[in-house]
Amino acid sequence: MPLPTPISVSALDLKGLIRPGDTIVVGQGTGEPTALTEALVAQAGDIGPARVFLGALFSRTFAPDAAPNLSFTGYGGIQQAGALARAGRLDPVTTHYSQLPGLFDNDFQRADVVMMQLSPGPDGRAPSLGMISDYLAAAARKARVVIAQLNARAPWTFGAELPAGLRVDVCVEDDREPVILAPAKVGPTEEAIAAHVAGLVPDGAVIEIGIGAMPDAILSALKGHRDLGFHSGMISDRTVDLIEAGVITNALKPYDAGASIAGCLFGGRRLFDFAHDNPALQMRTPDYTHGFAALARLPKFTALNSAVEVDLTGQVNAEVVGGAYVGAIGGQVDFVRGAMAAPGGRSIIALPATAKGGALSRIVPALSGPVTTARGDADTFVTEFGVAELRGQSLAERARRMIAIAHPDFREELEQAAHAFFRAAGA
Q1: Mean of the per-residue pLDDT values for the chain?
Q2: Could you write out the three-class secondary structure of the chain?
Q3: Domains of the chain listed by start with CATH number
Q4: Contact of 134 with 263, CB cutoff 8 Å
Q5: Is the pLDDT score of 246 beyond 60?
Q6: pLDDT per residue over 45-71, tens digit each?
Q7: Tens digit of pLDDT for each residue in 352-366?
């Protein structure tokens, strides 16, 4: 379906498109259509109360003190969305990432208006969502109004083409630089952890990564590996380093051979230029990037994730710190379970042993927040002090192994807590 004739952003009157009480779903991360979201904030007072569904948020468009008549929901408090959560303005939808498109498809989530960023199609091809292949198209199929920002600076990517028949009602042409996610600062602790993790990843493994300093450090530590594959919810600048160095070849994957699979471009211009019109990168929706059936077919699939805290039995909190929602269930459980089912697969949760400058242990007797990943899904945990392999181990042995990778300053305290727990349980 052809796009409508583009208008300038100055001519965009959202009051005529958005009704009070609407839910507005906006492109996440680097795929945020900032010409549209900035117009939404600027015109929010004229629109009336409305709700915005956010994903990962890298810009400061939706500042905690902006547009008080807007409320916010979404699948987590990732990056700047966490600031909204701390301000009490984000009401999270706690769901697995793989299920998000289905929430819109089956009307468990509303989508009255969708705002998306599109990259023009080269050589007459259909425009592409470019940066993201997630739940946005599913939401747009249900929306009353779909508004697109056509941005020639956004990369055109294979697999993220605008679905045939998807209607776009209003198109704004605005070629501003897309939002970027700068590489995180990697310190000695992350490097030490990454060195342990690299020793657990075999040549030929298919890897998945997340956002932040820990994944970036792990990717850097894998530079000596051979014939890795890539199948993940996101791809970053440092992934491109490994592809261009010949470390990630995707040569041994039983399907999608020769191509990296991702759902979101979470990086900067280096990543965007690599991704543009590049068939060696294929964008896919969450039912494929995070789908159990797809992951379980990948030999040596290795899920690389992190956590806020973990307890002595292998339960993971990846969502809440001090009562504030700063993370998400996201794809962690999807990838953990896919890795556990894959032939030779492994789930690795890597995290620093302490927080608050060493004042708090991140290995704890009991979680202070929700259980994101259950202990029944526990496999391998890594800190700067070593590796704890929990799969198949008894609770008492799990506690012993987790204490061994805790910071030495907290081991005695953890041993006492473990002793008290097992005595009370009669173990």
Answers
A1: 96
A2: CCCCCCECHHHCCHHHCCCCCCEEEECCHHHCCHHHHHHHHHHHHHHCCEEEEECCECCCCCCCCCCCCEEEEECECCECHHHHHHCCCEEECCCCHHHHHHHHHCCCCCCCEEEEEEECCHHHCCCECCCECCCHHHHHHHCCEEEEEECCCCCCCECCECCCCCCCCEEEECCCCCCCCCCCCCCHHHHHHHHHHHCCCCCCCEEECCCCHHHHHHHHHCCCCCCEEEECCEECHHHHHHHHCCCECCCCCCCCCCCEEECEECCCHHHHHHHCCCCCEEECCHHHHCCHHHHCCCCCEEEEECCCEEECCCCEECCEECCEECCECCCHHHHHHHHHHCCCCEEEEECCCEEHHHCEECEECCCCCCCCECHHHCCEEEECCEEEECCCCCHHHHHHHHHHCCCHHHHHHHHHHHHHHHHHCCC
A3: 9-173 (3.40.1080.10), 188-424 (3.40.1080.20)
A4: yes
A5: yes
A6: 999 999 999 999 999 999 999 999 999
A7: 999 999 999 999 999
pLDDT in tens, 127-166: 999 999 999 999 999 999 999 999 999 999 999 999 999 9
Place of tokens 């000596």: 224
Residues making up the chain, counted from first to last: 427
Quote the pLDDT of residue 423: 76
pLDDT at 422: 80
**pLDDT above 90: percentage of residues in the chain:** 96
Instruction: Give CA–CA dist 96/290, Å, rounded.
Output: 9
Q: What angle do CA 255, 344, 378 make, to 5 degrees?
A: 115
Q: Which residue has the tokens 């492109």?
A: 27
Q: Extract the tokens encoding 324.
A: 């504030």
Its pTM surpasses 0.85: yes
Q: What residues does 70 pair with on adjacent strands?
A: 50
DSSP strand pairing (324-325 vs 234-235): unpaired
State yes or no: pLDDT of 402 exceeds 90: yes
Cβ-Cβ contacts under 8 Å for 294 (sequence gap 6 or more): 231, 288, 338
Q: How confident is the model at residue 426 (pLDDT cuts 50, 70, 90)?
A: low
Residue 427 has pLDDT above 60, yes or no: no
